[in-house]
Amino acid sequence: MSPRLVAVLAPLLGLAALLAGCAQTGPTVGRPPAEIVREAVVATAAAGPSHAAVTGQTAVAGQAIPINGNGVVDPAHQAADLSLQVPSLGAVRVVFSGGRLAAQLPPAAAGVIGALAGGKQWVSVDVDRLAQSGYGAPLGALGVGTTANPADQLGYLRAISDTTRLVGPEQIDGVATTHYAGAVDLDKVPGAADPATKPGIDRLKAQLGTNLLPVDVWVDGGGKLKRVGQTVTVKATPEAPAGTPTTTTTTLTFSDVGSAPAVVPPPADQVADVSSLLPG
Prior knowledge:
Elements: H1 3-19, H2 33-47, E1 50-60, E2 63-74, E3 79-86, E4 90-97, E5 100-104, H3 112-116, E6 122-126, H4 127-132, H5 137-141, E7 165-172, E8 175-185, H6 198-208, E9 212-220, E10 225-233, E11 245-255, E12 271-273
Parallel strand pairs: 6-12
Antiparallel strand pairs: 1-2, 1-11, 2-3, 3-4, 4-5, 5-6, 7-8, 8-9, 9-10, 10-11
């Protein structure tokens, strides 16, 4: 998997991990902003898979690479099935499920990567392995693959700080929403103390220079997530590989919450595991 493709996928799926939640009850009117956001995460996850559009950009080696795509996100199961437009590669379908990231090879990548894949249509990486590699530092530290069973993982937004503030009402795609701004406390997210995942979280904190990950959240009138956005600036480090993203802005906008089809991983016999090719 090329560094450019990893650079595009990492922030996207890190954002998907932010949205992974557990199903309980919907939000309660009159709660502090942080509690409203947490309840919106729960309600969105409980509703089921939703359609989502992804926009943003990531800066790699001084070059801005746009991030655009759409598909299905299932927060409760930390799963996603999205088609992304990757510069120089074209449309790339990615499926995140069961702690693995699978990418369907576009024609432009079939030559080099296809040879490594043994002619199979898909390549995949173990997200824990990606998190431990230099390329996967931002992804791993955002919580992807922090547990063996993603369905058991609480969303990072559940660790949003109590200092979250109300920004105000805003319209998104004709839907009335309320905008909140806050930060995820990386010291309180699932896996923060787990020996298997703590190094990745500590790495991100070192790169950010803080334990707080800024995030903006828009909640609709039904108490569900309409949009989640984040901008992450990672400081350059001597051990960072060439092409490591420095600043990434990602926005995920939901529609048809709870009405999208379930995420289904590609057939195992069509997938080549290339995790061993990752550094680290």
